[in-house]
Amino acid sequence: MARPRTTSDEAILAAAARAVGRRGPAGLTLASVAEEAGLAPATLVQRFGSKRNLLLALARQGPAHTGAVYDHARRQHDAPLVALHAALSDLASGVQTPEEMAGHLGFLQLDLTDPEFRTHAAAQAHRMRTETAALLADAVADRDLAAGTDVDDLARGVQITYNGALLLWAVEGGDSPKELLRNELDRLLRPHRT
């Protein structure tokens, strides 16, 4: 009879995401993920088979994770723009140092050079833009943003601002990535506010 799993795949993938931030995918090993998750490396081999399969599982869960972050922000905050700030802050929470940003940029290299990874990255980007546009549409309906605001266009701007703010913070430093992100998002939204 098989032993029950005591650590979920979700917990392992969260540990893998932390390890990617620390080491980048090139420096990541199944042993480093296993240590982060408090498991034996053999457990990861049994569940995922290889480092590539583990990283693909991490990439595959990206769109669902992004959706869950936005859902959580909506449940916690009635105001759509407050929920948007919370969701983006949560998504950025894995970046606390420039070195962690470098680790995540290493994952982006996989996304850009490997078609299988790129498919998942594109789905995650689409999910983020769709979720953002929905919150912006709610903000228009609540009259927090001007009537007639092109929420799809603004959602794209939010996504570019999110990515750009994190890169700028990693290069220039400053208080925190979340603070820079908040300030840049406010600057983007200001002309659309009522």
TrEMBL record:
The keyword Transit peptide does not apply. It comes from the Bacteria. Residues 6-66 form the HTH tetR-type domain. InterPro entries: BetI_C, Homeodomain-like_sf, HTH_TetR, Tet_transcr_reg_TetR-rel_C_sf. GO terms for molecular function: DNA binding. Signal peptide: none annotated. This is Helix-turn-helix transcriptional regulator. Residues 29-48 bind DNA. Keywords: DNA-binding, Repressor, Transcription, Transcription regulation. The keyword Transport does not apply.
